Structures are given as C-alpha cells and as structure tokens.
Amino acid sequence: MNEDVQITPLQSKKVDWAALREDFPILHQRVHGRPLIYFDNAATTQKPKQVIDALRHYYETDNANVHRGVHELSNRASAAYEASRKRVARFINAKRAEEIVFTRGTTEAINLIAQAWGNKYVKAGDKILLTEMEHHSNIVPWQLLAQRVGAELIYLPINVENGLLDLNHLDEWLTTDVKLFAMTHISNTLGTVNPVMELCARARRVGALTLVDAAQSAGHCRIDVQEIGCDFLAFSGHKMCGPTGIGVLYGRFEKLEATPPYEGGGDMISSVDFQQSTWNKVPHKFEAGTPHISGVIGLHAAMDYLDGIGREQIAQHDHELAAYAYEELARLKNVRLLGPHIGRAGVVSFLTADVHAHDLVTVADQCGVALRGGHHCNQPLMKKLGVEATARASFYLYNTQAEVDRLVEVLKEIQKFFASRH
Ligand code: C6P
Questions:
Q1: pLDDT cut 90: percent of the chain above it
Q2: Does the residue 422 lie in any domain?
Q3: 322 and 297, same structural domain?
Q4: The dihedral of CA 363, 369, 370, 372: what is its sign?
Q5: Using a 6 Å cutoff on CB, does residue 213 contact ligand 1?
Q6: Which of 221, 305, 312, 223 shows the shortest CA–CA distance to 10?
Q7: 35 and 168 assigned to the same domain
Q8: Is 242 among the domain residues?
Q9: Of 262, 279, 307, which closes a domain?
Q10: Is 180 helix (H, G, I), strand (E, B) or coil?
Q11: C-alpha to C-alpha distance for 147 and 180, rounded to whole angstroms
C-alpha cells in the first residue's frame, strides 16, 4: 500500500462536538435547579432529534404491520423494516442482511443463542467459557443452559490491579471441551476494551464458537464482525442513540441456519398444520410475532446519525474524556479507581473511602449530575474486586471536559460535606 495516501478519518474529519449537543433536546434542562450533566450513558444514551423525527415520521405517515399486508402502508413499513436490516449489516460489516436478527436488546439476543443454539449443541460435560467481567445478561442465560443440559461454566480471570483479562493463561481455560466462548467487548464497569479479535481467533483454534457482547461498544467504536471473526454478536439500540426495546443478534449465516427457532408464532413459520409446522427462512425464523417496527426504524436513524459523525471520532472522544476524568479523579483524596489505567473506553468507576457509592450518587443527582451507583449488573465482578458497589460515570459524544470538571467539583463538595458530619 502507498503510505502517502493513507489518511485516517481522524485526521481528515473534525467534529464540532459542542454543536452536536443541539441535536439532543433533553440535555437542555435543569435538574434540581442545576444544569443537567448526563453521565449515565452506559445504562442508556439520549436520543437526537434525527431519531425522534424518524419515529414521528413513521407513526404519522407509514404505520402498518410488516410482511403481512398488500396495502401501501404495509409495503412502506416492510420496506423500511428491511432497509434497516441492510443498514445494520453495513454498520457491522456482516456479509449479508440475513445474518441480522432483530431482538429486544442484547439480553434477548444472548438468551436466543443460549436457548435455541445451546439446547441443540451443548451437552452434559461440555464447557462454556465466560470472563469474570461479564454483565448478568452474559452469565445468567448460560447458567440456565448449563442447568438444563448439565454443562459447566468456567471463567477467564481478570487482573484486579488493572482490570484486564489474564491472557497469559488463556490456553488453560480454552480447551477442546469448550463449546462456546462468550465475552464482553467493553466492560460496563471497568471500561476495559477486550481484544475480541484475538480471543475469537484463539477460540477458533480449539473449535469453540464465539459470542461477543457488544452492548457497550456498538455505538462507541467501529465494529466489523468479519474482522473480529465472531460467530455471534449482540447489541442494544438504546445504548447507541436508538430507541429502547430494539436490539440486534448477528450470527454467521450457516450458524443461524443450523439453529432451531427460539419462539413460535406468526411470521417465523413457512407452513402450519394441526400437529406440526415448518420454519420460515433465516432471519425471519427468529422473529416471531409483530416486531418492534418503529424501534427498527429509529435504529436506522441512529446508525445514520452515528456514522454521520464517525465512530472512530466518537471512540476517540470517549477515550479522551475517560482519560481526563480518570486523571482528575485520581487527584482526589480517598478515591479508588477501578479498571485499566490507560486505553479505557468511556466508563470510569470509582469508590470513595468516606462516602458510600449510593450516597454519593444521590447527592450528585441533587447537583444535577446523573451517575449510576451499585453493582451495575456485575455482581460476580464486584465479588472479585472485593467491593459491593461503585459510582460510575459513563460518557458519550455530547459530554464535555467542562462537565467532567463540574463532576470533580461536586465530588469535592460531597467529600467535604460528609467529612464535616464525622
Ligand atoms: N448495562 C448498565 O448500566 P440490555 O439491557 O439488554 O440493553 O443490555 C444488557 C447489557 C449487556 N451487556 C453489557 C456489557 C451491558 O452493559 C448491558 C447493560 C447497563 O451498565 C444496564 S445494567
């Protein structure tokens, strides 16, 4: 390749981050009398006007059920629904649109595989490999499967000091009796970015399938399922500027073809008789009943919005804010920061010795700062870290360095307030 013509998008494109805030009407309000600072983006992100307008347009002009009617509105709704599927395929570089299944979110996508694929292919004595930093959504479905079929769950350890997976010992865990390795791409508590491409390649060598939980990454960085080399990948629309109740399961076409249906109902069948039925083609086989049509259309608008900015730019913005927050918080007394020191995604979890995470988050809310406190659906990880709860600030494209400064100021005030009561 000619080095002279290698211009990365980051160099070629400047984003006006402040102007983007104007796309998010919800940000322009006061909470408890203070300007809202929304740092709970790992839980759900805010929605730009472009997504809200797409939902309004759909309900005002095209609303009808999909794949059923022969009337104009149904044809329009069906075309928009299938156009979004193609858009998702492009968004994650899937080989074909049929590899995209719409689900309610990451949780349902993982449950679909754990039930439909797992029931058929995982047998007593087989192992499912997870990591110690998984969200409950990527633990409990596998526990249910393991209980059903008599399989065993094993966990790749993390290094408590830096929040990274212990890859030196991966071969000890990734043995030939592992049927599937399910891993998070970005940890919602630690901000760790896992090397999913390497993990999938290593799993392939022992014949294990792979599932990537991209709940925290799909809207925050470039995702290329062919490059990652995973068999399945799951994400949620609401964590990437899209509506709630819509998500995506990506599956390699041949793996989806070989997986039995998940739920029965309308649209997932080819024919139904009194005693038995035959199934529709992939991906419709996995989409029983009337789907979340408006959600799918809103997701399309969200993907267009994010790619209009550039996901590499968003990733860099997240990383810069998180690195700045980490540095500033580390200067405070009695603050313990969790997770990697460098290279973290836009998530910073911390604890203060003098104030419980729940109290801290409650008082921060009174100052207009929305954080999350608790175990973040990561109870096994909390156990490993030896903590009950953390406070968490998670960032997105509309957050600013000035907001991080305000967070630090608020934390100092909170610490002073609690110290004065002792
Ligand atoms: N984490 C958080 O505040 P759903 O609920 O299906 O959209 O996403 C579940 C999920 C799966 N994996 C990861 C890594 C996640 O972070 C989440 C959701 C939220 O951290 C709610 S607990």
A1: 94
A2: no
A3: no
A4: negative
A5: yes
A6: 312
A7: no
A8: yes
A9: 307
A10: strand
A11: 16
- pLDDT at position 12: 56
Residue 29 lies in a domain: yes
Domain endpoint, select from 260, 281, 307: 307
Question: Atom 15 in ligand 1: which residue has the minimum CA distance?
Answer: 215
Rounded to the nearest whole angstrom, what is the distance from the C-alpha of residue 166 to the centroid of ligand 1?
A: 23
Q: Please indicate, yes or no, whether residues 281 and 186 belong to a single structural domain of this protein.
A: yes
Which band of pLDDT confidence, cut at 50, 70 and 90, is reported for residue 2? very low
For the Cβ of 349 lying below 6 angstroms from any atom of ligand 1, the answer is no
Instruction: Count how many domains the chain has.
Output: 2
Eight-state DSSP code of residue 153: E
Domain range spanning residue 356? 17-47+311-417
pTM for this predicted structure: 0.96
Name the average pLDDT for the chain. Answer: 95
Indicate if 377 belongs to the active site.
yes
Distances (CA, A) of 103 to 129, 212, 236, 293: 24, 15, 9, 11
Q: Which of 221, 230, 241, 377 is catalytic?
A: 377
390 within some domain: yes
At residue 285, φ and ψ (nearest 5 deg) are -55, -25
**Dist. CA 264 → ligand 1 center (Å):** 26
The neighbour count for residue 362, using CB atoms within 10 Å, is: 13
The number of CA neighbours under 13 Å toward the Cβ of 147 is 6
Read off the pLDDT of each residue in 122-126 and give the average, rounded to a whole number: 98
Residue 93 sits in a domain whose CATH number is 3.40.640.10
Q: Residue 7 pLDDT > 70, yes or no?
A: no
Cα R_g (the chain), whole angstroms:
22
Quick check: 3 pLDDT over 80? Answer: no
Distance, CA of 275 to chain centre: 40
Q: Is 273 exposed, middle or buried (0-12, 13-18, 19+ CB in 10 A)?
A: exposed
